Amino acid sequence: MSSSREKITARAPQRERGKRRVAALLEAAVSLFAEKGYDAVTMTEVAARAGAPIGSLYQFFPSKETLADAILDRIGESFDDAFKGIEERGTTIAIPELVDAWLGLLVGFDEERAAAATLIESRQETSARAAELRLSLRRHVARILRARIPKLSSKRAETMAVVVVQLMKAAARSAETDRAVRDGVQNELKHLMCLYLNDKTAVAQTMTP
Amino acid sequence: MSSSREKITARAPQRERGKRRVAALLEAAVSLFAEKGYDAVTMTEVAARAGAPIGSLYQFFPSKETLADAILDRIGESFDDAFKGIEERGTTIAIPELVDAWLGLLVGFDEERAAAATLIESRQETSARAAELRLSLRRHVARILRARIPKLSSKRAETMAVVVVQLMKAAARSAETDRAVRDGVQNELKHLMCLYLNDKTAVAQTMTP
Amino acid sequence: MSSSREKITARAPQRERGKRRVAALLEAAVSLFAEKGYDAVTMTEVAARAGAPIGSLYQFFPSKETLADAILDRIGESFDDAFKGIEERGTTIAIPELVDAWLGLLVGFDEERAAAATLIESRQETSARAAELRLSLRRHVARILRARIPKLSSKRAETMAVVVVQLMKAAARSAETDRAVRDGVQNELKHLMCLYLNDKTAVAQTMTP
Amino acid sequence: MSSSREKITARAPQRERGKRRVAALLEAAVSLFAEKGYDAVTMTEVAARAGAPIGSLYQFFPSKETLADAILDRIGESFDDAFKGIEERGTTIAIPELVDAWLGLLVGFDEERAAAATLIESRQETSARAAELRLSLRRHVARILRARIPKLSSKRAETMAVVVVQLMKAAARSAETDRAVRDGVQNELKHLMCLYLNDKTAVAQTMTP
DNA sequence: TATGAATGAGTCTTCATTCAT
DNA sequence: CATGAATGAAGACTCATTCAT
């Protein structure tokens, strides 16, 4: 009875520890990348901040690139989830709400979004993953845009999506400063984005080709 | 005496040559930074592209950081000039024109603006100069904003300036892709910025506190 | 009692399993060393190919060196057996047969001989066992040589033995290429060795000091 | 006058020093590779033995592989020279002389030949250069063989060449031990090779197909 | 002053070995 | 006794910077 349970829990700590370690490493990487950017961070540094030996870091992330990609992957998944939620609500969702959801993607309490924003930017040319993520963001946004503004050509939707994504990244970047300005800027960006979408929606509805 | 004249003429070509060399080095650095980003560029590479020996590079720019700062400085001056021109025209300048001028700051034919955009972004945390430049940009924009929208509090002007600068950088970043999307995005950003300024101006004029 | 028998039978399979595991590990090591050479093989790799956990590998072979030595030991024993067989047949054995037997020592169907040849070669300076094996080979050959050619001084026998062993290793090395050349080379080496022994025997019989 | 000459000699020491450094590095690498084999040698070790900082080593040899290849190249050139000399003498050269020349290729006063022998052996699979060198050796030997023994088919010449090269390598390997045995073995190998060539020549002349 | 070879601290990464479970 | 995650010393290689010439 208890012995069998013991056995189960016997290895649980090991896996548990492994999970905790991966989490710690990822967290350390996230904060370091967010602080200093990909290139300025050393693997030794990441391991040290996670309180792990360098070998452990490489056990889980066999290269620096893998480490960055892992962060991007995790963010990518959370993006997919978020977009799924947004798209399910279809056209019922009001513009301010939509904008809130979008801006929230790259701006959160944790540093994860900041790290992701940095990595997407700086590794776009070198990491396939970063390029993918950026593309995926654009595609999601473009699809939603076309659903709301039916007359939008796919090319224009793409263009608008680029702009929207840039606005998202702007929000992420401005999250790096002190709270006082940050909140103001965030609000402002939200306002700006609403303005933009309202304009486009109105124009589209007005402009009968 | 002939000796003194000799010295003068002897050094004149040297200075001339020195200037040309500095220009070549700077140009090489600019194109390289624009292409690959600060970290991926080596000093040896810069010297080689400029056709100069590495020692010469260090003669004029005693460190890699100095080199980056020099580029930032030069851009900073051109910004100051541009803003001076804008501010001289006062409130007479129409919003679309103003927006054109602003967006043109970081997006140009030459690679210098691309390099500057990259450097500001990637070295913001490490280089005082990059931070200064960003601050200077903000201040200039804020001043113009306050001149056009008198009721604007200095705090709100600052906030708006941050947004405007982010938009400028977004334009710079989108310049990295192929021409087809680039032009579309650039136009879109211009439109967006006009929308934003028009809105703020109108609101300010309407909102009687 | 049943308990004691239980223990016996309980461990019997374990020992059985242990033997099988050791065999699998050794086999894996042999094939890997033969393929890639000592340095290029990792312990993890050996364990993986044997389908055993790394801990198990270290249970039986406490170091990489031990593992290599074990292979050398096993080959050494098989050499001893082979030489015993040869020596028992005394002088009755004809030269071509003798040569066949010798060349067969390091060239066989299995990879074991190839691995051994590699290990003797590459670890000669670092492993006492490899040196021992080489020495043992020489001694065996020298003894047989002196038995067949009575007038041979021990020093000359040693020298000849070195040559013979080198020829054996040459055969082993040539086994690494494609079958077409290999068979030809092997035949040629056999011929060469016969030539050598015949010459020495004749000379010795002729040369009356 | 003296000034111009001074200028010439002014940089001479620099180049001189560079040459000396390259020589020292190469010599260190040669002796280390000869002693311990390719894998067991570290780049730091090579630099240290040459009395050079690690950076200098990499200045001249951008990778460990390059370093090994450089040694192989140098040996390869000396082989080509030697073979050129041998081939020029055509069929006039007597067998013992030919054998001397061949055995001398991989056995010399310096350690260079020993290092080369080791490198050819251990890096055959990984280094294109090592494989090339081995092939080149075979081809040279085969050509000479066919010139001397006209009836030899190209395939048999190739096979014989393999054997001859193996004999050369055997001589190189036996050079690693103390002088006493070495000289004896070397003589023995020479004798063996003469035996082999004489036999082949005689057989070819006798055997009329 | 100009040059570019020289320098070595610091980077990423591997792998034999150990030990908690 | 079995397991395989954890460890960290050590290796190949880079590059900003210096300094002898």
Protein described:
- The structure is a homotetramer of 209-residue chains.
- Chain A is mainly α and 209 residues long.
- Helix content of chain A is 80%, strand content 0%.
- The first copy, chain A, contains nine helices and no strands.
- In chain A, helix 4 crosses helix 6 (112-122) and helix 5 (95-106) packs across helix 8.
- Chain A is elongated and about 60 Å long.
- The termini of chain A are far apart.
- In chain A, 36% of the residues are buried.
- The model of chain A is unreliable at 1-13 (pLDDT under 50).
- At the C-D interface, helix 8 and helix 9 of C face helix 8 and helix 9 of D.
- The first copy, chain A, binds a DNA duplex (21 and 21 nucleotides) through residues 10-11, 13-14, 17-18, 21, 42-44, 52-56, 58-59, 62-64.
Number of strands of chain A: 0
Shape of chain A: elongated
Give the fraction of residues assigned to helices of chain A.
over 70%
Interface with most residues: A-B, 30 and 31 residues
H/E element sequence of chain A: HHHHHHHHH
How many helical stretches of chain A?
9
The overall pLDDT of chain A, averaged over residues, is 86
Tell me the distance between the termini of chain A.
76 Å
Oligomer: homotetramer
% residues in beta strands of chain A: under 5%
Spatial extent as radius of gyration of chain A: 21 Å
**Which class do the helix and strand fractions of chain A yield?**
mainly alpha
**Low-confidence runs of at least 5 consecutive residues of chain A:** 1-13
Largest sheet of chain A: none
